[in-house]
Amino acid sequence: MAAPRAAKRPKFASGEAPPQRGEDDYVPGNIVEIELFNFMTYDHLVCCPGPRLNLVVGPNGSGKSSLVCAIALGLAGDPNILGRASSVGAFVKRGEVAGHVKISLRGETPDDKICVTRKIDTKNKSEWLLNGATVPKKEVIDVIKKFNIQVNNLTQFLPQDRVSEFAKLSPIQLLEETEKAVGDPDLPVQHRQLVERSKELKALEVAITQKEKTLNNLKALNAEQEKDVERVRLRDNLLRKAQLMKKKLPWLKFDMMRKEFVEVIQEKENTAKQEMEEAARVWEDSKGPIDKLKKHKATHTSNIKKISSQINENMDKRQKVMDHDLRLNAELKATFDEIDDLKKQEKSRQQRILKTKEDLAAAEKDLEDLQPYELPKAEMTQLRDQIARINVEIKNLKAERDAMESQLAREEESMRRCSDRLKEMESKNSKLLQALRSAGADKIIEAYHWVQANKKNFREEVYGPVLLEVNVQDKLHATYLEDHVPNYIWKSFITLDASDRDYIVRETKQYGIPVLNYLVREGTKRRPLNITPEMRQLGIYSRLDQVFQAPDTVKDVLISQAGLDDSYIGTDETHRRADEVSKLGICDFWTPDNHYRWSKSRYSGYMSAFVDAVRPSRLFKSNLDVSCIEELQLQKENHVKNIEGMREALKTLHRKQRQLEDEEAIIHKQKEEIINAMKYHKKTREEIQRRVDMKRQMLRNISREEDVESSTRKLVDQVAKLNDERFHAMIKLKDLLTEAVALKWSHTEKNMASIELDTKIWEMEKDVKKLEKEASQKARNYEDCKRITQEHRRRLSIAKQNAESIAVITKDLKKEFEAV
Predict the structure, then answer these.
(1) 159-177 residue pLDDT tens
(2) Which residues does residue 46 pair with via DSSP β-bridges, in sequence order?
(3) Which of 57, 304, 363, 547 could hold 477 in an S-S bridge, CB 3.0 to 4.6 Å?
(4) What keywords sit in the KW lines (predicted)?
(5) What is the 3-state secondary structure (H, E, C) of 32-57?
(6) Whole-prediction pTM
């Protein structure tokens, strides 16, 4: 008989009976009491749920969700599971510093109660108490797990903000979450193990089926291959014999190459070597007679060089004697010419004295006839006064021009600063457009450039994007304004004409940028700011519509679309006394850390409060003042006009200065003409006086010339001396010519003998070169034979290595080779 099948799983891991309801109808772990203090909308609340289904009914904002949040946080739940706030500090009632949640759970008996208290504060700190004693959070979690309370399980605890998440769970996920919630902790584990075992079983079944198919295929293949075994054995025998022949073939080739090498190649190399040595010996023997003739020729060449040196020395001596004779002949001719000149000079001397006296008299007469020249002092004084006056005017013009240039430089510097400031503003404009693109308006820059390029096509003024039109001086106010105004408005364009709106929407459809059309209503006025003393006491000092500058149209759109005139601005004092602000009828206000809003229920009239943390500004990081841009543009235009006027004035001053300088140049030229006339008269007088003095000196020099007869006698004696020197030079030249003829004869004889020796040496060298060529040919033949021998040795070695690589000769292998 088969053994009874074991149960799938025990009902409870501990083996104990499931928890039963007591006499009070509660199950252990049920919530019997909830106490809230300064928690969300409650100042203090005590609630006692029943043992069965509990239903909490009330209008919006009455605190139903607050009870759910208190249960989750009081039972060690994380704030994130509620889908509201990420920190516990956000659950403290507004205006309070701390609060607590106390949840009482039923124990094993009706009298046994377990009290879990969680104290929280605005600094996100939590303190846990268990039955009044401070304990760590882990101990509280252990108590919660003991009763199988799973706050994180959506099938057991489902906040309203996580309903959509619960709806997205698949059936399998719902089953798993339900198993976790029923109470048995082993049930999910056993479920996962069952799924894994099912997968493993299916995989094993598939593997067994595949292996059976493989076994059948292998058996059929084995039966077919047994027929081929005999053919394979026969083939192996033939292959073994062929393999032996392959081994023997390289050794047969090696033996044939070795026989050829020994019989043919080495014999050729020995013969070539003997022929080379014989040719080298004959060539060496034929060079001895040539060396003897060359030594004899060298002796003749040395003697020829000595004779040539003596001939050159003789030629140098003869050249010197001839040069000396030519010099004496030239001196002799010059002496005769000088004698003739002396005779002619005496004749012309008297004529020169007469001519010099006549020239002296003419020069003295010219000097007497020259009239004295007086400088016109009155005219010179007048010219100097005119030059001084013009210089003063030029100096004044230069001072005026320098002042004008300094003013122009200052004006240009101001315009440069203005231009730089405008560029800086434009760069801020780009940063704002980039901020809008980062915030989700991907095509805002293209839309902005399109609107700027098509402004001429609009009927009315077009503003936008709105972010570029708004200027906020205070960064905190900019944060308030950005958080308060809907995001789509910042990237919107505003038109004043419906046709402009339609045109922009049609042309910029691909950019996806909103366009608002503003209708100007006559008689509408903005609500003035009225801060009462009560508001000031609570720290309220302004309103959102008062903290920024923008064109009137843009400001009206922001006020009408975002209700800026209903949102007030306060301080930290306003934050501390937020509950009192609502009593003044203010339902929307900002503090440095939070944004407070009150809304009234349409059903019950109950007021609900909302507090949001102030998020840091992202769009207004690089805000700019549009009015400042217009003012800078106006300043730049004024600077440009001033600069153009100053440059025209500078050109006029420059023309005046040039006219005065030209006038000064003319007066200077007149003055220089008078001075040059005076210098010319003085120079003329000096030249005539110098001519008179020169003629007088010339007359004295002619009178002091020496006597002609004594000079002639001296020159005759000099002629006789020069003739004697020429005679001795000719005698020496004759002796040198005789010696030169003898040396030339000897040089010719020696040179003819040297030529004969050269002819004999040339003929013998010709024969020697022929023998040298034969010896070189024999040497080349021998080198070729050596190279062929080395090549055959290399090939023989390669053949042996190839044969050994295929098979090494052993005794057994040698016997097999002989048997084949």
Answers:
(1) 655 555 656 666 766 666 6
(2) 35
(3) 547
(4) Coiled coil
(5) EEEEEEEECCEEEEEECCCCCCCCCC
(6) 0.33
